[in-house]
Design a protein that fits this description.
single chain, 10 helices, elongated, Serine Threonine Protein Phosphatase 5, Tetratricopeptide repeat, mainly alpha, 199 residues, 75% helix
Length: 199
């Protein structure tokens, strides 16, 4: 990892090296901010490091880390899969560190959050597989992926939207309308909606 931080990207991408080091320090309860800041100076586009920075800043200021946070929303839009995997890894390491320090209430909260974000990353990946099949005109395969996401994560509006788009492409306008209406109802109810209109 030292060679990667010194600039040998053949070993590990620089952003990954800083993020891995920050996770180790987080688990040990050490000060992470200096490494995150140094990493962002060298790799400012790193979604993982920016996500960690948002969480650390929110813990220091008491501001919301994700809900209503414009920078976190931008990171999520740029690459939801990477964003959710980063959150899952961050909370996992926080939970491991709390467990070592016998902070069991915090351990439970952190590990539950880790599992939640890991599931969100999974759902995003499966939904993207459906999009890939649709782009290759393999619509039946796309249906399978969208229906799997909807079955396991009904709050994923992107899967419903893309399922509706697939029905529309195949001329099944009634089924498309039903999926669009379901997506719209979920949005009006104020539930958490995971849009992914860029495929």
């Amino acid at each position: 990892m030292t060679r990667a931080i010194k600039g040998n990207a053949d070993v590990v991408p620089l952003g990954d090296a800083y993020f891995s080091l920050a996770l180790l320090l987080l688990e040990e309860g050490s000060h992470v901010n200096p490494w995150v800041k140094q990493g962002l100076k060298r790799v400012p586009q790193s979604i993982e490091l920016n996500t960690l920075r948002e969480l650390l800043d929110s813990r220091a200021t008491g501001a919301p880390a994700l809900a209503g946070n414009e920078r976190a929303s931008d990171l999520r839009r740029r690459n939801p899969g990477v964003f959710f995997r980063a959150l899952a890894a961050i909370y996992h390491r926080m939970g491991k560190g709390m467990f070592k320090r016998e902070e069991y209430a915090g351990t439970v909260v952190a590990l539950e959050r880790s599992l939640h974000f890991d599931e969100m990353a999974w759902a995003n990946g499966v939904e993207k597989s459906g999009v890939a099949h649709n782009r290759r005109a393999q619509h039946q395969e796309g249906f399978r992926y969208y229906e799997r996401v909807i079955r396991e994560h009904p709050e994923q509006a992107a899967a419903r939207f893309n399922l509706g788009a697939t029905h529309f492409l195949l001329g099944n306008t009634e089924q498309a309308r039903r999926q669009y209406q379901c997506t719209n109802r979920r949005r009006r109810r104020g539930g958490q909606v995971s849009w992914n209109l860029d495929g």
